[in-house]
Amino acid sequence: MRKKRLKGAYFFIVFFLLFASAILFIPVPMFPGDTLLQMTNLGTLEHAFILSALVNALVYGLIAWAVFAFAMRRIENAPHKEPVKRHKRRE
Predict the structure, then answer these.
(1) What are phi and psi of 87, to 5 degrees?
(2) Minimal CA–CA distance to 43: which of 32, 54, 35?
(3) Which domain holds residue 35?
(4) Cα separation, 84 vs 16, whole angstroms
């Protein structure tokens, strides 16, 4: 059980860093980070794009983690088929 949680944590960290670096290198206003900054009047800060990138990375990392966890649960609970018996070829 612990290994499953670690896989999910690693997956989240990788996608968090991926999204954060992508949003920092390509500063395009994206939902929900930009919207949250505008609603809270934090969009006027000098480094608001960093806060927006972190919020976006957190949200999209959590979404990616949730999809990963759902897919892993479906794969683990799938009914397993019997292995196909193969006959040895005679030469």
Answers:
(1) -85, 145
(2) 35
(3) 2-76
(4) 41
* Cβ proximity of 54 and 36 under 8 Å: no
| Sign of the CA dihedral with 52 first, then 57, 60, and 66 last | negative
Find the length of the chain: 91
Q: Rounded CA gap, 29 and 53, in Å?
A: 9
Q: Is 87 a domain residue?
A: no
Question: How many domains are there within the chain?
Answer: 1
d(C-alpha 71, C-alpha 88), whole Å: 36
- The model's pLDDT over 27-62, given as tens digits with 9 standing for 90+, comes to 777 788 888 877 887 767 777 788 888 888 899 888
In a domain, 83, yes or no: no
Query: Model's pTM, two decimal places?
Result: 0.70
pLDDT at residue number 5: 65
